[in-house]
Structures are given as structure tokens and as C-alpha cells.
């Protein structure tokens, strides 16, 4: 995905067990933080054609 | 390489006469210079149409998918690796095919040659190391190694990896080539630069799917691009859809692509879509130490689990 021009932080993988609530919260906070810093995705966005 | 043809004909005739195979797949002269086309010889007489020169770049393995008859097939290094992949993926049985190995010194890139001349090329004559191009008002002899397809110039598996017959002795493999200079150049770009680079690369794409059709790996009965329920990817010229098609097609070739160059060769607008498959090939080599199609008895990396598989991307 990085090779296609998607920023490295935009796609993240994590392994969280259903018993690891604190890890889940931590991961979610970190991911949202990282994505907010990157701002909205600009690449590979499809715009609908304008119809009269 | 030109001297192979007698031996190719001899072997093919023998196989057909003895009934070992129902047909032999090879090449015959195309209607245009530098455009050889596949030829399916079903009788010893039809073998006479076979040719072998530096325009046999089409990957013949593409014609083996799910065939039921006994087939003799000419195989260059890359073709033979695709045949191995076909055997691994149960698309053809090993005992059904007779592989006639052809050591390959590289195929020429007709686009490079066409770009050198303003007029139409009428005739192309080659000998072992040079190509003579003739047209209206011009004639020029060029060095063959200057006009090789890029993947052939970087090839490290010129000899067939499996074969039943060989038309000539194995030739020396290239060892001093750096296969991934172009991939590394792209890797060094920033995400935005990469996006722009691919946007520019794919702009001329007309979605003709010639790359998919020429590829021996693309044998799905219904391709994801053709499906309409559900429609995975838009069918128009929208750049997002075009990129999605190319990215996905490349992903489907991960760990399977042998860099035979059939996709690039078939592209009517000359897009080098091999930059995608080559990146995956490089990753496979670096992460799993895997090169596709070398051994029919080893399962590919995406098919096997090993505790040591790299997982640094999982946090």
C-alpha cells in the first residue's frame, strides 16, 4: 500500500485480543492521532462525474 | 538463437509422429515485422511454419491453462517458470506436457526499434548479435543488446528450469545484473511523489486488458474487472479505477510473477506496468527468499505458513 502512494501511517495493523481492553484503547487513540496528523486522504479518491 | 530452429522442427516432428503429443505450441512469422505469433502445430507438416528469432517474446504458457490434450511446448526460461507455476496451481498436469527447452538470449523490444526510425519498418533481419532494420529510404544495423526488452536485459533465468527436451546446450546465466534499480528509485520517493508518478504512468491506459490477457497468471474464468455483481472496480477511465485495476492485477501476481514481460509487450500504449509486479517480486525475494516458478515441488510463500514469516507491520 505504501508503494502505491498511501502514507505509511494511514494503514495500520494490530493484533488485539478481546481481553486486552487497554491495548485496544491505546491502539485506537494512536491510530486516530496518526490519521488526524496526516489529514484527509488525497490519493485514490474517486469523484463522481458531474451530471447536468 | 537462430540456429535452434532446425532442432525445434526436428523434435516437434518426432513428438507428433510418435504420437507423444497432440500438438506443439511454438511461433510462426507474424504479419508485421517483429511480431511473431503463436502457432499450434497439430501435424508434422504444420511444424514447417515454426520460426525462432528474437521476436518470440509472447509467453506460450498462457495457452496451457486447463488444456486436456497432450501438448508439446517451446519454453524459454521465463515460460518454463510459468509452466512450473501452472503445475503448482493445478492448471496443467506435468505428465501431460512435453517441455522443449529453449535457452534464451533475450527478446528485442519492438518499441525501442520503432522509436529509432521515423518511417514504417518494412523488414527486420537478424543474426546472432545484430539486427538490421530496413524501411523506405533507410537501412541500419543495430546491436541486439541495445534493443533488448528491459526484463530480458535483466534476466537471471535464461535457461529453462524444467524441460524434457533441449534444443541446444544451456547458456551462461547473467550474474552481474542489478534487477531492481528502477524499483528502488520509486521506493525512495515520498508518498505524494509516488502517487503522482503512478498517475502519470497510468494516464494513457485505455483499459483494453491486453496485459491481463497476455499474462499466463491471469486465468480466472471471470476476472475481477469484468464482474458486475458485485462490481469490484469501476470500468471507466477514472484514474482511481484505472490505478485500482493495475494495483489489484499486480497483487494477484504476487509470488507468481516471473517477470516474463508479456504484459508490457502487449500494451498498445506502452505502459510499463512491470514496475508493480517487480516491486512484489522484490518483496517476495527479500521477505521470503522466494523466486517464482523454480521448483514444482515447493509451495509458494503465500500458500504456506512459517513461524518465522516477517510480521513487523503488526503493532
How would you describe this structure to a colleague?
The complex is a heterodimer of chains A (52) and B (315). Chain A is mainly alpha-helical and 52 residues long. Chain A is 35% helix and 0% strand. The N and C termini of chain A lie far apart (36 Å). Helices cover 30% and strands 13% of the residues of chain B. The N and C termini of chain B lie far apart (53 Å). In chain B, the strands form two sheets. Chain B has a five-stranded mixed beta sheet with strand order 2-1-3-4-8. Chain B has a three-stranded antiparallel beta sheet with strand order 5-6-7, with no helix packed on it. In chain B, β5 and β6 form a beta hairpin. Chain B has two domains: 126 residues, no CATH class; 138 residues, no CATH class. With 315 residues, chain B is α/β, with parallel strands linked by helices. The model of chain B has no long low-confidence stretch (mean pLDDT 91).
List the SSEs and their pairings.
The complex is a heterodimer of chains A (52) and B (315).
Chain A: H1 21-38
Chain B: H1 4-17, E1 23-28, E2 37-41, E3 71-75, H2 77-88, E4 97-101, H3 110-116, E5 121-126, E6 130-135, E7 138-143, H4 150-153, E8 165-166, H5 181-187, H6 191-202, H7 210-214, H8 239-252, H9 262-266, H10 274-288
Parallel strand pairs in B: 1-3, 3-4, 4-8
Antiparallel strand pairs in B: 1-2, 5-6, 6-7
Keywords:
heterodimer, A: 52 residues, mainly alpha, 1 helix, 35% helix, elongated, B: 315 residues, alpha/beta, 2 domains, five-stranded mixed beta sheet, three-stranded antiparallel beta sheet, globular
Number of strands of chain B: 8
The radius of gyration over CA of chain B amounts to 20 Å
- Termini gap of chain B: 53 Å
Question: What is the mean predicted local confidence, pLDDT of chain A?
Answer: 86
Largest interface: A-B, 18 and 21 residues
Which class of secondary structure composition applies to the elements of chain B? Answer: alpha/beta
| Proportion in β-strands of chain B | 5-15%
Computed over alpha carbons, the radius of gyration of chain A is: 16 Å
Topology as H/E string of chain A? H
Rounded average pLDDT of chain B: 91
| Number of spatially distinct domains of chain A | 1
Approximate helicity band of chain B: 25-40%
What summary fits the major beta sheet of chain A?
none
Strand content of chain A: under 5%
Fraction of residues in helix of chain A: 25-40%
Q: Point out poorly predicted stretches of chain A.
A: none
Amino acid at each position: 500500500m505504501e508503494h502505491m502512494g498511501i502514507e505509511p501511517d494511514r494503514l495500520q495493523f494490530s493484533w488485539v485480543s478481546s481481553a486486552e481492553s487497554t491495548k485496544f484503547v491505546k491502539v485506537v487513540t494512536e491510530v486516530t492521532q496518526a490519521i488526524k496528523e496526516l489529514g484527509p486522504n488525497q490519493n485514490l479518491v474517486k469523484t463522481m462525474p458531474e451530471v447536468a | 538463437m537462430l540456429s535452434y530452429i532446425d532442432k525445434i522442427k526436428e523434435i516437434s516432428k518426432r513428438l507428433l509422429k510418435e504420437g507423444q503429443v497432440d500438438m506443439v505450441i511454438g511461433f510462426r512469422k507474424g504479419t508485421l515485422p517483429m511480431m511473431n505469433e503463436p502457432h499450434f502445430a497439430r501435424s508434422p507438416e504444420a511444424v514447417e511454419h515454426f520460426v525462432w528469432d528474437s521476436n518470440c517474446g509472447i509467453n506460450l504458457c498462457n495457452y496451457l491453462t486447463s488444456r486436456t490434450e497432450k501438448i508439446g511446448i517451446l519454453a524459454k526460461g521465463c515460460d518454463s517458470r510459468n509452466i512450473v507455476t501452472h503445475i503448482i496451481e493445478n492448471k496443467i498436469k506435468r505428465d501431460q506436457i512435453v517441455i522443449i527447452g529453449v535457452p534464451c538470449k533475450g527478446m528485442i523490444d519492438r518499441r525501442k526499434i520503432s522509436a529509432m526510425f521515423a518511417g514504417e519498418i518494412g523488414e527486420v533481419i537478424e543474426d546472432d548479435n545484430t539486427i538490421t532494420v530496413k524501411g523506405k529510404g533507410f537501412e541500419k544495423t543495430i546491436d541486439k543488446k541495445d534493443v533488448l526488452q528491459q526484463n530480458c536485459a535483466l534476466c537471471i533465468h535464461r535457461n529453462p528450469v524444467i524441460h524434457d527436451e533441449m534444443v541446444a546446450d544451456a547458456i551462461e546465466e547473467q550474474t552481474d545484473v542489478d534487477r531492481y534499480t528502477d524499483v528502488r528509485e520509486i521506493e525512495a520517493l515520498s508518498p505524494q511523489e509516488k502517487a503522482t508518478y503512478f498517475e502519470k504512468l497510468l494516464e494513457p491506459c485505455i483499459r483494453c486488458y491486453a496485459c491481463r490477457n497476455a499474462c499466463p497468471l491471469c486465468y480466472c474464468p471471470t476476472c475481477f474487472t469484468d464482474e458486475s455483481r458485485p462490481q469490484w472496480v469501476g470500468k471507466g477511465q477514472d484514474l482511481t479505477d484505472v490505478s485500482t485495476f493495475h494495483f489489484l492485477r499486480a497483487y494477484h501476481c504476487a509470488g507468481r510473477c516471473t517477470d516474463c514481460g508479456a504484459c508490457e509487450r502487449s500494451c498498445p500504449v506502452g505502459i510499463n506496468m512491470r514496475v508493480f509486479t517487480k516491486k512484489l517480486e522484490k518483496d517476495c525475494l527479500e521477505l521470503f527468499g522466494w523466486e517464482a516458478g523454480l521448483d514444482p515441488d515447493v509451495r509458494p510463500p503465500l500458500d504456506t505458513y512459517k513461524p518465522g514469516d516477517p510480521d513487523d507491520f503488526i503493532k
